[in-house]
Amino acid sequence: MLAQLPAALRGLQLPLRLRLWDGHQLDLGPDPEVTLVVRDPQLLSRLGRPSLDLLGSAYVEGAMDLQGSMAAVIRLADRLSAALLDEHDAAPPSRAAHDRASDAADIHYHYDLSNDFYRLWLDRDMVYSCAYYETGAEDLDSAQQAKLRHLCRKLRLAPGERLLDVGCGWGGLARFAAREYGAEVYGITLSREQLALARERVLAEGLQGRVQLDYRDYRDLPADGRFDKVVSVGMFEHVGHANLAVYFQTLQRAVKPGGLVLNHGITAKHTDGRPVGRGGGEFIDRYVFPHGELPHLATAVARMSEAGLEVVDVESLRLHYARTLHLWSERLEQRLDEAARLVHERALRIWRLYLAGCAYAFEREWINLHQILAVRPRADGSHDLPWSRADLYR
User: What family does the entry list (predicted)?
Assistant: First the structure.
């Protein structure tokens, strides 16, 4: 059967072993770090053009198995596809229609998998977004607390202020802002599983007088400027390019004149939003974040400006997210037996690839993460931001 192997594979020098369903195997280089076990004979001929989408899909669907650390698997998959594919073969960016029903279904698919599964590898507050490493030596719990503090400081959050948390997740930021900064927080989500646990935690901490969390679409938020500050973390990736203008207009109308809006989200490498990574983006769209679309930083800033929000500060946390994802991946890999009891094998395969693959993607600058701070100026153009950033780091 090895005779059917695409000729292009035979000249590679990679620490990769191919093993067939009949036991035959071939080393593509010395000292293999990863073994790719072909289960489906039809996969063999397709390995001559091994996009990351093809390889990932074959693993998820059981056409092949992988032996070795997930970090090594992702690294070798990239080297394999780079050797045989042209980076410029990337498909043009896809655009999807985003309405309330489809967005709710997509959020349900990703976030309602299992609270207990997420609890295995997230920090104690279950903050499912990029952490913030002030020195680089922090553990995950410390780095996530530092991220929540960093957000609140950027917002110059003060006791008694009304904070809108768009995409509140399991409520970690909402509770932190109420507990540590005395804010009155209103959070929304389209994940019923997240909402149920978030409300439980609000009650457990006795914060029900300061934190209200609802199942609500961002398009249904009030447009009366009732909030002093607005924060959105890991949310606008689900909005879609077509709805970015509506999204930022909604945030602008929700915050009072002079108020601040902080958007924390993943951004694309290319200005047109097309994915990189020879099929990695297509895999994410198919299996992880259906209809997710990453705008470029320039697009996000343009849409915020057009919505009447003045951008006053931008910070890239790309390497912070690479580290966060590495830690998430390591924590999941350490608890695979427990994870296998909580989710279906197919889902676990998706998440093993996703966490390790995204860590690699951020490391390689295929994608970025930006915090964009903006203000809704008053009618006379004024606002109350300090003259320098010194207060952020005291």
Answer: Belongs to the CFA/CMAS family.
